[in-house]
Design brief:
By secondary structure, the protein is of the alpha/beta class. It is built from 17 helices and 10 strands. The radius of gyration is 19 Å and the shape is globular. The two termini are 37 Å apart. Bound molecules: flavin mononucleotide (FMN).
Amino acid sequence: MTDSENIKEIKKLGEEIMIGGVRFKSNVLMAPLAGYTCFPFRLMAERLGAGSAYTEMVSADALKYNDKATTKLLYTDAREKLKCVQLLGAVPTVFERAVKSDLIQKFDVIDINMGCPVPNVIKSGEGCSLMDDIPRASKIIESCKRSGKVVSVKCRIGMNPQRIVIEEFARMCESSGADMITVHGRTRNMMYDGEPLYEYIALAKRSVSIPVFANGGIDSKEKAEEMMEKTGADGVMLARYGFENPLAFSLLTGREINDTKLSLILEQIDIAEELFDELYVLTYIKKLASYFMKKQPGTKRYKLDLYKCGKVSELRELCTAIFGSDDNAGLV
Ligand SMILES: Cc1cc2nc3c(=O)[nH]c(=O)nc-3n(C[C@H](O)[C@H](O)[C@H](O)COP(=O)(O)O)c2cc1C
């Protein structure tokens, strides 16, 4: 029997979904992306149709220092309707303390990072290495659940092709109290490349009754639909595609909007400028503009200008020149 035959019901993209008693306005979510998913970006994703948008991973241990950098990463206010944070760590008691802190109490959903593949994270027993320590992963979920908040887990399918543990891992997440799982359909050693292994996301979905979201390699509406069909997942989580083209949230969910890349980037500059210092605004907007140009022909010539730009006022003008032309205004 193929995976598609095993799937009872194929959900539609853009549907609302209840997770742990909280309403997500669509089942197309924005992934946590370190260095990218700051407050202005999350607001934009939510407005364009994302059911949720997560902060980048924040060290659960670092919260005890209450430092400026962490406070900036965790900025949120009433404009963000559903507030979702992602924590990274290895020690259950550290998570328990972290979720009680004022900075985390503002959030509605706590996601636990059990998928990060980078060597330093793995060495510290955090991220994807928790897929090799199921009892510890379980205690971490239980510690977060004691906060009374909605708890989700973002994981991969295992550490490597010999250690694919997603079935047992998904069951453990559910029995430890997780309200939702996002499965990035790659092993740790695949890092961010290669075709995701749909059959293991489908296996996770069949193994539990909590919602399962599918992540990895979605770069078009067709790919998102294929992911839903082949895995039976309750929804999808976009990562690089969502950052490259936030208009994808309206494309995938069918939400009507009147935005262009230019209107979005100018709005992002305004929100970032209101909250953050000039250096932060420049760094963030340059990253966003570079991503927006990625698949757009004829934009290479702007890269150097963007790199050299030292003032937000100049950046506004440059972005208007780049994204103001009809060629660069819309969806890619
Ligand atoms: C630059 C970058 C930063 C990332 N940061 C995080 C993070 O903070 N937390 C996390 O769980 N995953 C992180 N990821 C993984 C993504 O959320 C996602 O799982 C991965 O990119 C696969 O999805 P995609 O193929 O659609 O991009 C990151 C990926 C990239 C490329």
